[in-house]
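[READ THE FOLD]
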Amino acid sequence: MRVGNRVRLRMQQALNLPSALILGVVLLLASMVYNMALAQESNAVPSESQPQAITLAAEDSWPPFANQFGQGISHRLIQAAFKQSHIEVNSLVVPYSRALMMAEKGAVDGVFNVTREISTEQRFIFGKTPLLVATASFYQKKQKPILADNKWALPKGAVIGVIKSYEYGDEFPKLVKQQQLNIVTVANQQQLINLLLIGRIDAALMFDLVAKENLKKMGVDDDVIPVFANHSSDIFLAFSKKNPQAQTLATQLDAGLSQLKATGQYEKLLLVAD
């Protein structure tokens, strides 16, 4: 009787052995599939500390730095700098005032070509390294008598044309108040130059390389000339305060620009025309 029991027990064990093996294999496969799924999900979703792509608002009428086609010096510099950190840059080309608003509200991660001054530091996050430095001057019709020798000598009540939402340095609000200037605001460079040509304004305040580009394009570069300087601006990519990664992005941009300068690429990108 005991012998029979032992035989039956061994038979049961022999029958149960394949089931145990099958179960083990199934559990092992399930574990491998689960781990592969986790790895794929991790690769598909960018880490919060390391963004893989960003969206920036780029102004549409500031050539040679940024134009309506999404091209220009600033585009090249920003894309090349972020490429060092393997970050893809997507640009939305819009008017400058809208670009500022979009970045301020957090609709985009940042905005092109912002002068770092008191007013903008209150609205955006900046890195330490500017994209570039741009000078701005007062422009007049060549045939018209020069208004003054410098901006502080502008006659009181002079009519000055500017672009909506542009920054013209920390001194400009003081200049407007002190000289009681009448400011006429327009949307783009072409409108500003046309107002100057037809005598609706006494002078136009324009960034020099931008003025040169637009005056040549309009065929009036012999009719409008710079008469005296306004200021020199450090031009930045400004980041939205609504973005928790803003400071990280600013640091990565600084590092990218430094690397471009160290390798000599920066000067080439600054000078090459589209």
DSSP finds nine helices and nine strands in the chain. Residues 2-44 form the longest helix (43 residues). The beta strands are 53-59, 88-94, 110-115, 124-125, 132-141, 159-163, 182-186, 203-207, 224-240. The two ends are 98 Å apart (CA to CA).
